[in-house]
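Good morning C.,

I know you're traveling, so I'll keep this short. The sequence:
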Amino acid sequence: MIRAVLLRAFGVMWLAGIWVLLWGTLSVGNVLSGILVGLAVVYLLPLPRIPIGGRLHPFSFIMLNLVIAAMLVRATLQVTWITIRPGPPPRSAVLKRRLDVRSDLVLTLMVDALSLIPGSLVLQIDKAQRVVFVHVIDITDKRAIAKFHKDTDRLERWFVRAFERRDEWRDITSNASLGRAER
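The tokens, ready to paste straight into the viewer:
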């Protein structure tokens, strides 16, 4: 109960801070109206709870961010080269990729990371099958496809290490349904 109140209070303060930043002036009126907007959003438009079955591993999380940063830099340089090099426009393809992540939250974060990397964009997600369809530019041969899958494997490994290691995972959805059935 206390945790829920603290989370809501944090949400209200976060939204009030964003409100003040959007207005660009720190004043009593902006802070008060930000708090009112934050209260309205938190209490009138509550988000559903997201079940999380794993836990955050700080070292792996830092490594994940470094891997994403390295992929961003490399992909940015590649896309820059594609745009300035002479010749025909690059070939692109939509590639299908199955992801072995369990949590919807981790799936969302992984899809966001894939879309953030220049030269790729997630077009469709099959949540039930954990399949994503990714538009990738500069697919010239099978090596480019293999490179995409290798990079995605690497990214997926770090997401699993950071958020949902197999030995620590507990299936929240089945536990929640068992809890309801026992009541």
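Safe travels,
E.
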